[in-house]
Amino acid sequence: MEIIDTYKTISKTVSEILLKERKSKFYGYAFPIQNESDVKPLLDNLRALYPTANHVCYAWQLGVEHVSYRANDDGEPNNSAGMPIYGQIQSFGITNVLVAVVRFFGGTKLGVGGLISAYKNTAQLTLENARIVKKILKERATLSFEYSEMDTVMRFIKKNRLELVSQNLQMKCEITIAVRKKEVEKILKELKSLHKISVKTY
């Protein structure tokens, strides 16, 4: 089974992308997120920013191999807001992202079809204004070894172009590296063949 170790996400927050639909105003926002606990504070901030808004609807997705997501209509008719927003997250092929749409009701009812279209289009416009970046999934490993093995370890890190996360160089040394997920098995196998170095992954 092929390991997927790259994903697309947005590089930074996109704010206040406005769509007007029959006097209703829809403001689109997109945020990069790392875990579910990031979501509530961001939504709370939006509600504080727009205290008179009628709805703050949203969808988010997290993960690459194990994907989790949520879509919320915030009082709009069932599946007329959250799912159209989530559909755009899927359409752009991104993850680790929260897209929220703040609505001010303009006095004219849009109907379910009109709402689906307005939320979808606001989410689409918002993500079209985002900078989408490709990221690589990495796993960390800590190498423990005697100072006399330093040259061997450093040569290995350089040869395999591994990312150095942290180092603690005493008589007993510890170096933490980040390894691209696809290469973890190969790198660990090679490291274990260097007998004087112990490896811990997490």
What order do the helices and strands come in, and which of them pair?
Blueprint: E1 6-10, E2 14-21, E3 24-32, H1 39-49, E4 55-62, E5 68-72, H2 82-91, E6 97-104, H3 111-128, E7 132-136, E8 138-146, H4 150-159, E9 163-169, E10 172-180, H5 184-193, E11 198-201
Antiparallel strand pairs: 1-7, 2-3, 3-6, 4-5, 4-6, 8-10, 8-11, 9-10
Helix pairs in contact: 2-3
Structure description:
The chain has 202 residues and is α+β, with helices and mostly antiparallel strands. It folds into two domains: 6-135, Ribosomal Protein S5, domain 2; 138-201, Alpha-Beta Plaits. It has five helices and eleven strands. It has helices at residues 39-49, 82-91, 111-128, 150-159, 184-193; strands at 6-10, 14-21, 24-32, 55-62, 68-72, 97-104, 132-136, 138-146, 163-169, 172-180, 198-201. Strands 2-3-6-4-5 form a five-stranded antiparallel β-sheet, with helices on both faces. It is elongated.
The gist of it:
With 202 residues, the chain is an alpha+beta fold. It has helices spanning 39-49, 82-91, 111-128, 150-159, 184-193, and strands at residues 6-10, 14-21, 24-32, 55-62, 68-72, 97-104, 132-136, 138-146, 163-169, 172-180, 198-201. It starts with 5 loop residues before the first strand and ends with a strand.
